[in-house]
Amino acid sequence: MEPVLINHVREPNSFTLDFYVRHDGYGALKKALTQTPDSIIDLVKASGLRGRGGAGFPTGMKWQFVDKKIDPRYIACNADESEPGTFKDHLLMERNPHLLIEGCAIGCYAIGAKVAYIYIRGEFFHVQRVLEGAIEEAYKAGYLGKNVLGSGFDCDVYVHRGAGAYEAGEETALLESLEGKRAQPRNKPPFPAVVGLYGKPTAVNNVETLCNIPVIVNRGVEWYTSVGPEKNGGPKLYCVSGHVRRPGVYEASMNVTLRELIEGFAGGVREGRTLKAVIPGGSSVPILMPDQLDTQASFDAIQKAGSLLGSAAIVVLDDTTCMVWLAENLLHFYRHESCGKCTPCREGTDWLYKILSKIERGEGQMRDLDLLSSISTNIGGKTLCAFGDAAVTPVLTTLKHFRQEYEAHIREGRCTLPAPWRAAHRVGAHA
Amino acid sequence: MSFHPKMAYDATFHKSARHLEEEGPAFAYTPENRARFDEIVGRYPPDRRRSAVLPALYLVQAQQGYVTANGIRHVAELLGITKADVEDVVSYYTMFYTRPVGTFVLSVCRTLSCALNGAERVTAAICDRLKIVPGQTDSSGTFTLIEVECLGACDRAPVIMVNDAWQESQDAESVGRLLDDLKARGEAALTGCHHVVERNGN
Prior knowledge:
Oligomer: heterodimer
Shape of chain B: elongated
Distance between the termini of chain B: 51 Å
Radius of gyration of chain B: 19 Å
Largest sheet of chain A: 4 strands, parallel
CATH topology of the largest domain in chain A: Rossmann fold
CATH class of the largest domain in chain A: Alpha Beta
Strand content of chain B: 5-15%
Strand order of the largest sheet of chain B: 2-1-3-4
Strand order of the largest sheet of chain A: 3-2-1-4
Helix content of chain A: 40-55%
Distance between the termini of chain A: 45 Å
CATH architecture of the largest domain in chain A: 3-Layer(aba) Sandwich
Largest sheet of chain B: 4 strands, mixed
Number of domains of chain A: 3
Shape of chain A: globular
Radius of gyration of chain A: 22 Å
CATH superfamily of the largest domain in chain B: NADH-quinone oxidoreductase subunit E
Structural class of chain A: alpha/beta
Helix content of chain B: 40-55%
Largest interface: A-B, 78 and 63 residues
Number of helices of chain A: 17
Order of helices and strands of chain A: HHHHEHHEHEHEHEEHEHEHHHHHH
């Protein structure tokens, strides 16, 4: 399919209002303002748009759940893109920020909100400046502010900068952070659509999700659903990184297979190496093996293959990758990012990391493998948010597919597959 | 903090740890920062001033380089919340420094995609050259090295962040040149994210 979200991102000045309007920008907002808010929600529902942040929940339904009896209502845009391997929202906001602003405005109109907060991760400071510049332009041109385009609809969009916390990407933790507290999750239910920001009904949507809204309004449901397989319609951004020749963000319909993404778009595994495994949806999802490469990269097909599409962050691993090292690297991440609210996750991720580190150093024992499994099953499903399940996934999935590597580490008392540099320098993965 | 006798947390940072910040010199916003603060507070409902705590702390950090107990007190008074509320936030988020840092803070991404592409070699090269380990500032007070988790720049791995700017596709050699360049030319040595490069048309 022809890209529609990132078709102009390589052109100079693609981030300016002038450029955006010349390419039919804000046409969807004009069109939406002539319709009733409910008909916009119906349109999004009919399009079947599924949230692009990771869970794949239908956006139209999320909007419909927003309690219209309570005022004020809010949109919180999740721009805390922190899932390891994910960098699509960064590209959208930096090179096509007006698409997001238009999506926010239409979303506010649909659910009856007057304010949208874009929660952007602190490390995206350069992106924030572009986004704020674009918002200023939109205010001046009357696409935001009081009485948008003379319709009587008021809409403010603000950027809120985070300060370094993966957990702020969890929707309720994001709201806590927006309220000026630690980014720690709330118990659900009630869901944010009922009790959200400041206790008011709130729609929390990912950047790419909101960027799809103007596309749906412009091109209609029929076109949108015709792109991609049933229930997996619309354009999708894929982030390919790791051991590939051309890492980057690629837009395709969800008809595309993992093989086409890795061998086609990204140019295949780097010179002289073979594929060992693929993480198809960010560090929190199970690994897929080379014989599963022909799986369609859609929410449903990847799930059927035993993993999740998640944030569509495809991390490609070649035959030099030690899977114990990989699990150790990711558990270092999860240990550091655990918000500390639930004991199983706070303590358990630390234990998992220490055990993995011990095995990688060559000091592990066979009984440690059972310990890894038992700690993992005592974290998964026992925490307030999905972080716990995410954190144990790298351990369980590497144990499942590469148990022989763990055993070799323990038997030989060393890492059996160190990268050349690491072998020469005798350091742990995190020295 | 660990409740397990045989598995105490080591000295490394953990979000659930709480610690007291140093008192530091007396602190109040400069008039410019105060104006900026007032503008930011206006983005949130009047009874929800607390929402501005992160931007307020960024202003403190921009003004004095790091966040002290006096800075925390100032923010707490302006927002009408307790010092403990602010302290709670400062100790949780990794981008607030609670000790003085060098002119340039080098944050090397160490998570998977960067690690697969040799991030640890970049860290090792910086350590060798500056004679420090991650978490330390070099003897001249110019550079502070920290290791951070995924920065979201996995297509240009390994990436390091120099203060607020990204420097992409680094390796052991290029980072050595970067350090020299930063010493010689300051922030002008930074190229930034590749999208910024494209934006500026070169």
